[in-house]
Amino acid sequence: MGAGRNVLVVSTTEDVGDAVAPFVGENDTVKVIVPVVGQGFMDWLSNDEKAFAHADAAANDLAEAVPGETVEARAAESDVTLAIHDALATFPADAIVVAIAGNADLVEALDEDGEPGRSIDGIPVHVVRSR
Predict the structure, then answer these.
(1) Inter-residue contact 106 to 100 (CB < 8 Å)
(2) Which of 4, 66, 74, 117 might form a disulfide with 28, Cβ 3.0–4.6 angstroms?
(3) DSSP assignment, residue 26?
(4) Beta 69-76 vs 95-100: how paired, if at all?
(5) Contact (Cβ atoms closer than 8 angstroms) between residue 67 and residue 21
(6) For residue 130, what are the CA distances in angstroms to 18, 29, 100, 107?
(7) Is pLDDT of 49 > 60?
(8) 115-125 pLDDT per residue, tens
């Protein structure tokens, strides 16, 4: 197999390693981020450390489950789009894989009718929905 790509893996749900793995090659360099999602402002004030620790652990678990060499796995900004742009500032991705649960707004924003050619800043995006 040839040279690998830089793949940014973003997940808003857990246990998606099997779904994400087909989009990541053994020779790829991977950065995994898990946005801290689903928190209201008051939850954030009281549970910030716990939520970030949970997202950090989920990122590390996902990094172990996907092929390739993971260079970083961590919790990220709760706004998924902002988290992706933040990650791209320090990781020159060739592809982005986003694993999402049933978040209707996010599904619509990232995967309108499975439209081919979806991209962020010219980088191809593959959306994986968890079951």
Answers:
(1) yes
(2) 4
(3) T
(4) unpaired
(5) yes
(6) 10, 23, 6, 11
(7) yes
(8) 556 888 899 99
